[in-house]
Amino acid sequence: MSDFWRGKRVIVTGGAGFLGSHVVELLQERGCEDVIVPLIEEYDLTQLADIRRLYGAGPSDMVLHLAAVVGGIGANREKPGTFFYKNMMMGVQLMEQARLHGIPKFLAVATICAYPKHTPVPFREEDLWCGYPEETNAPYGLAKKMLIVQAQAYRDEFGYNAVVLLPVNLFGPRDNFNLHSSHVIPALIRKCFEAKDRGVRTLEIWGTGRPSREFLYVEDAARGLLLAAERYDSPEPVNLGTGREIRISDLVDLIVKGTGFEGELRYDPSRPDGQPRRCLDTARARERFGFTAAVSLEDGLQRTIEWYDSVRHARPDGGVG
To answer: Which conformational region is residue 174 in: left (phi greater than 0), alpha (psi within -120 to 50 degrees), or beta?
Structure first.
């Protein structure tokens, strides 16, 4: 562990959220004693005045932009305009004001949803512009994709050190387990436990189960993000993942086994599947800043299931995290 973070002042947008909370903890473990987390109650990061107030509070060494308005397929279909506008406004203004305030480096977390719907597998960063994103999450994906354009344009014109990462689907403790807005792993874990609690013998699964996904454990993602912040200073976006593809039906089987649900699985093909396949080429992250995922999907699922089971009664709606 290097002394890179000692004595630095770092702003982490989204630092109170799922990925952000793990990043903040890791920063503190590595000696960063001045971590600024702008809470939504104090700062609306879609508003220019609030961003200026945040940056004007004191000189900073780096911005880690993790904040996002995000959700699963249902949430993306319900609020495409909201997802586009809020994510676009946050990213554009946060990077511009960081440049104007003289903050030396800006690292932005974009999304795997930026890739075209029919990207060849494994997804390579060079294929980002070969088509339109999958329709159900295109507004969100395109808003985040503009971070790549902005970072490269600012590097070309202003010499500004902005870099962009493209993490695959994340999971782990403290995830969002609210069924209205959660992603597939936390939603399935919660559904399994609630079905067991109520004695329900049938579990409904959205879609056909045929699409594939790739998943990265949140602690690995936090470590990869800080490695990039320390070591990567180039214009090309970088995938962050494991390189392991799994069908949704196989993922469901792992979660059912891990939670102990013993009932019938019923797939609903009238529900959208989303993007047909997702799996990343992770060579660039390994070569440019030495990142390789350490936690397997099976181990990460078990840790997540155990964590959720230990805290799920803390809130009446079960939407912990």
So the answer is: left
Q: Is residue 2 part of a domain?
A: no
Number of structural domains in the chain? 1
Distance between CA 111 and CA 280 in Å, rounded? 12
- Taken in order 113, 37, 29, 96, the sign of the CA dihedral is positive
pTM of the predicted protein model? 0.93
Q: What residues are labeled active site?
A: 140
Q: What is the pLDDT of residues 111-167, one digit of tens each?
A: 999 999 999 999 999 999 999 999 988 999 999 999 999 999 999 999 999 999 999
Which CATH number characterizes residue 74's domain?
A: 3.40.50.720
Assigned domain for 263 exists: no
Nearest Cα residue to 312 out of 201, 198, 204, 189: 189
Strands 215-217 and 9-13 turn out to be: unpaired
The answer to whether residue 124 is domain-embedded is yes
Q: Distance between CA 285 and CA 271 in Å, rounded?
A: 34
Of all residues in the chain, what percent carry a pLDDT higher than 90? Answer: 88
**Helix locations, the chain, DSSP H:** 18-29, 48-55, 73-78, 80-100, 138-158, 184-198, 218-231, 248-259, 283-289, 297-311
158 burial (CB, 10 Å; 0-12 / 13-18 / 19+) is exposed
Can you give the residue range of the structural domain that contains 33? Answer: 9-174+214-244+278-294
- Cα–Cα dist 152/159, whole Å: 9
Structure confidence at residue 53 (pLDDT) = 98
